[in-house]
Design a protein that fits this description.
The chain is mainly alpha-helical. It has one domain: Formate dehydrogenase/DMSO reductase fold. The protein contains 10 helices and no strands. Helix 1 packs across helix 9 and helix 3 (48-65) packs antiparallel against helix 4. The radius of gyration is 19 Å and the shape is globular.
Length: 284
């Protein structure tokens, strides 16, 4: 049962970073992805609320399945979690409110909230996981910010089909390779046996993403950037404290096992429905 519980927790954690990492990255880079910001936001509009469900489910499973681990982990990273939730709230407020009134100043203010909130979420994940890795919080925040931004730029290139996000993603790859990979290793110096192989794999994936972007193979680039950002939850998982499942975990796992196929099917349906390139503004 412990193995299944860890597998469910890992599935939802990875799902959050792969899916929500794209819309958070777009929010981080909003001023640089094209002049029509409504068009850029339309690239993530059908996805961002559904993507957040994966984080809520991850937190719920951690609390229900591993109460001992939850208290220890939250106790160590509570400050970063406060920033994360605050940034999440500010980012969503920016997305929802920017189009509720006309006016340049109004939209600029809420665009700024979207950008600031997105950066806060990406950085706070780095701080939180850096603390779990042994204290290299500021270092790992460099890695997470780079990976979120890259994933968002690649996603925007795929959805918008324009040159700005592709060129930006191509410039971001060397930055993450030169800064993000060493920072990941530096943050995990207490456990290099766990960190170094994942960091090496990250380097390989970044090179593959750069090559795919160079040939405008956006689908392949998105796959590689998604695999690259998976390094973040894997490093978090490698540094979680040991714990056993709660005595009453069977019911939670049964319900979760039934719901997972439905959730994956719903997510796949949304992605298939909105698989085409964005050609007009959304409701945001």
């Amino acid at each position: 049962m412990d193995t299944f519980a860890y597998a469910m927790l890992g599935l939802f954690g990875i799902g959050y970073f792969v899916l929500a990492g794209a819309d958070i990255g777009v929010g981080m880079l909003l001023p640089f992805l094209g002049r029509d910001r409504r068009l850029t936001i339309a690239a993530i509009a059908p996805f961002f609320l559904g993507n957040e469900v994966w984080l809520v489910a991850t937190a719920g499973l951690l609390t229900a399945l591993f109460p001992g681990m939850e208290s220890e982990v939250f106790g160590r990273i509570w400050g970063a979690l406060v920033v994360l939730v605050s940034g999440w709230t500010i980012r969503d407020m920016g997305l929802w409110l920017r189009g509720r009134q006309d006016g340049t100043a109004w939209r600029r203010f809420w665009d700024g909230a979207t950008v600031a909130g997105s950066w806060a979420v990406a950085a706070s994940w780095g701080v939180a996981i850096g603390l779990l890795m042994g204290g290299g919080a500021p270092l790992f925040a460099v890695t997470t910010c780079g990976l979120f931004a890259l994933h968002g730029a690649v996603f925007a290139a795929l959805r918008l089909g324009s040159e700005e996000p592709r060129a930006l993603a191509r410039r971001l790859v060397p930055v993450v390779l030169v800064a993000g990979v060493p920072c990941a290793i530096g943050a995990g110096t207490d456990h290099l046996g766990r960190t170094a192989p994942l960091a090496a794999g990250l380097g390989v994936l970044l090179v593959l993403a750069w090559l795919a972007l160079g040939t405008r193979r956006y689908g392949a680039a998105l796959v590689t950037s998604a695999l690259a950002i998976v390094v973040v939850p894997l490093l978090a998982a490698a540094n979680l404290p040991d714990a056993t499942t709660a005595d009453d975990a069977s019911l939670t796992l049964t319900v979760t096992g039934v719901m997972v196929p439905l959730l994956i099917a719903a997510q796949a349906w949304v992605w298939w429905t909105f698989r085409g390139r964005v050609d007009g503004p959304s409701y945001l």
